[in-house]
Amino acid sequence: xxxxxxxxxxxxxxxxxxxxxxxxxxxxxxxxxxxxxxxxxxxxxxxxxxxxxxxxxxxxxxxxxxxxxxxxxxxxxxxxxxxxxxxxxxxxxxxxxxxxxxxxxxxxxxxxxxxxxxxxxxxxxxxxxxxxxxxxxxxxxxxxxxxxxxxxxxxxxxxxxxxxxxxxxxxxxxxxxxxxxxxxxxxxxxxxxxxxxxxxxxxxxxxxxxxxxxxxxxxxxxxxxxxxxxxxxxxxxxxxxxxxxxxxxxxxxxxxxxxxxxxxxxxxxxxxxxxxxxxxxxxxxxxxxxxxxxxxxxxxxxxxxxxxxxxxxxxxxxxxxxxxxxxxxxxxxxxxxxxxxxxxxxxxxxxxxxxxxxxxxxxxxxxxxxxxxxxxxxxxxxxxxxxxxxxxxxxxxxxxxxxxxxxxxxx
Length: 411
Known about the structure:
- By secondary structure, this protein is of the alpha/beta class.
- It contains 15 helices and 15 strands.
- It has helices at residues 43-56, 68-77, 93-102, 117-130, 145-151, 156-172, 187-200, 217-231, 246-259, 283-297, 312-315, 347-361, 363-368, 374-389, 396-408, and strands spanning 17-19, 22-24, 31-35, 60-64, 85-89, 106-109, 134-139, 178-183, 206-207, 237-238, 269-272, 302-306, 321-326, 329-334, 337-343.
- It has an 8-stranded parallel β-sheet with strand order 8-7-6-5-4-3-10-9.
- The longest helix is centred in the middle third of the chain and has 17 residues, at 156-172.
- It is globular, with a radius of gyration of 22 Å.
């Protein structure tokens, strides 16, 4: 018998928040998160990893924002990311403010290392004004020393009280767009802390066993903690914290949710860019048309629909196949390599036909069968598009100016 969510404990009712268009809580599908391991200042490398994570099943991706260069990187990453971006903040509240200027769709604050009341309220007030949710990310390994002393260690009560203190600061500035995590590397402590949190808060909960380690032991620990709570109806977002390629985290999260019947199993996994200032087609319409056509075939592949040939093939190079637009043409690529250039009005049809051949023959055979001159034509279109739109179609330079001013204001 196929496992159904109706056989698990009912989902705990929580408030609804929205993170960059992704609904969380109040019965919304449980979402998968992961975190990049690249330097956020490495824009192209970080975007490539984000696309790989999205293709593996991540609904939301977190990036560190620990310095001005990372905030500047986020200003360039956010408009090109296929999924909402959360900035991970530690110690320096000005990095949270800079990340907000960069346009991130969410923040994660650790109350164990960002403790000044005025600074916390300032960040919460600005997030409130921008409609950006914040995760209160309590971690047993970085618990505030006063709470550690009060409870004699990182206990479930200490972790939950840490979150409650932070939430009280937020509520003083009328900010309630919050989700909460109370992570620990001990599975039993993590389970107990989340059970207590679910009794204490009506905010969405983000589940995870922190610092779980490398697979297979890390997968076992993460699954033991996360699956236990999900089966009890607790949890609205999840992350496997593995010492491994983060793509393994996203894949594990998606497989766990599918195994529990909390997310539908999919054949085709389609990702698409968010249609930034360089897009030459209606990305949303093309992606929808491609999704409908490919779902009928139920092909077990990852497909990317990208708005421009400048960045598309490189950013989505981990997808099995994709199409990128430019100069009234569609640039068909397999594993990031251009194989055909087709008229814009035939983009979806060409994508579907090539996808069928890819499944039948394999990637290497289809790359070997690439049209002569396709790479050169794509490069010419890429340069023409750069000449037309310039190097800064998303106006990130203006955001970077503000970020620089804000990060230097405390010097």
